[in-house]
Amino acid sequence: MAAELIDAARKQQEKVQGKSMRCKKSHGEARMAYVSQVVDLEFVQDFVRMCDGGWQQGWHERNGGNASYRLAEEDIAAVKACLGVGGHAIGFAASDESSGLEAVAGEWIALEVCEPFLAHEWLLITATGSYMQNVVRLPEQCLGLIELNEQGDAYRVVWGFEGGGRPTSEVSSHVMIHSVKSRATEGASRVLYHCHPTVVNALCLALPHDAREWTRTLWKTMTECMVVFPEGIGMVSCHVPGSLDLARETAVAMEGHNAAIWAHHGLCVTGGTCDEAFGLAHVVVKAAQIYESACAMCAGPSFRQQISDEDLLRIAQTFGLTPNPKYL
Ligand SMILES: [Zn+2]
Predict the structure, then answer these.
(1) Which of 162, 170, 249, 276 is catalytic?
(2) Domain co-membership, 30 together with 85
(3) Active site annotation includes 186
(4) Host domain of residue 166
(5) How far does the centroid of ligand 1 lie from the alpha carbon of residue 97, in Å?
């Protein structure tokens, strides 16, 4: 479905621009040959679907939100095959077969962080200033692939960001959080997704900025919450968007959580797959909506009844989960 949408969008774009995309870049046909294939890779399509899902939920006003996916080895191999580097050349001109990554990669650009644990890792990441609503229509502009260097303190673009774009201003946060989560999960965590759900920011006005308070409030709205996030929700205080302070505090919060609230800003989640990360965001937002609705019905948080601590423990035990002892 995503591929069809992307294909339809690309044809429409060509029509509107009144010229063939094959002539758009100096790389000419060879560039177009790999662009279409990178977009069609399954991990890229999953990512596009996640971005579009957030837009459809109303979590991404203007250019709000960003996301990244840390590629698996097989993903990198597939991209190299599409790019015609590293000994592969699917659909690529014969004269380009021998060219290395240097032939397609940009200059090295310094990061504000140093994460050698992520040496040579690749991230698929949203572009700065891009609108989530446009990702499905213009993936080559709104997304890009970056490779980190040996020291984990610089990156270079290997695909995407067409039209002169660059990674989200939160790129240093993404690198730092991926490093923390990769270590904490023995490499299982790959997706970082950040969005601005209305109800989350409304609750930032109403609830104290305290991880225990948020976790218990959400756990007690519906039984699914304990099953989906038994480790609870982290809380990050109000910081300048894109700042290193925000990155550092989030990295600490994410060591023990897969979701964190950015006070007066939004929600940040991680997961092994796009479905897992997006699903977690969806559950957090739904729980917050239930709490908001119940407050409206009861003229405040004085509910007739709610899930007890004993109920929460029973749910966790039944599913073989260990609730975070800080919160229960
Ligand atoms: Zn944001």
Answers:
(1) 170
(2) yes
(3) no
(4) 1-170
(5) 40
Percent of the chain with pLDDT strictly greater than 90: 81
Residue 208, domain CATH:
3.40.225.10
Residue 133 sits at the vertex; the CA angle it makes with 59 and 61, to the nearest 5 degrees, is: 40
The answer to whether 192 and 67 have CB atoms below 8 angstroms apart is: yes
Whole-number Å distance, alpha carbon 153 to ligand 1 midpoint, is 23
Average pLDDT of the residues in 176-203: 98
Are 156 and 260 members of one domain?
Answer: no
From start to end of 1-102, where are the E strands?
66-70
Q: What angle do CA 25, 134, 107 make, to 5 degrees?
A: 40
Distance 197 CA to ligand 1 centre (A): 10
- Whether residue 235 sits in one domain with residue 135: no
**Prediction pTM value:** 0.86
- Residue 129's region, left for phi above 0, alpha for psi from -120 to 50, else beta, is left
H or E element at residue 73: helix 73-83
Burial class (CB in 10 A: 0-12, 13-18, 19+), 111: buried
Helix, strand, coil % in the chain, rounded to nearest 5? 50, 15, 40
> Are 144 and 270 found together in one domain?
no
Q: 251 C-alpha vs ligand 1 centroid, how far in Å?
A: 15
Task: Quick: pLDDT tens for 241-296.
Answer: 999 999 999 999 999 999 999 999 999 999 999 999 999 999 999 999 999 999 99
pLDDT tens column, 284-317: 999 999 999 999 999 999 999 999 999 999 999 9
Span from the CA of 50 to the centroid of ligand 1 (angstroms): 16
CA distances from 320 to 130, 183, 222 (A): 41, 23, 18
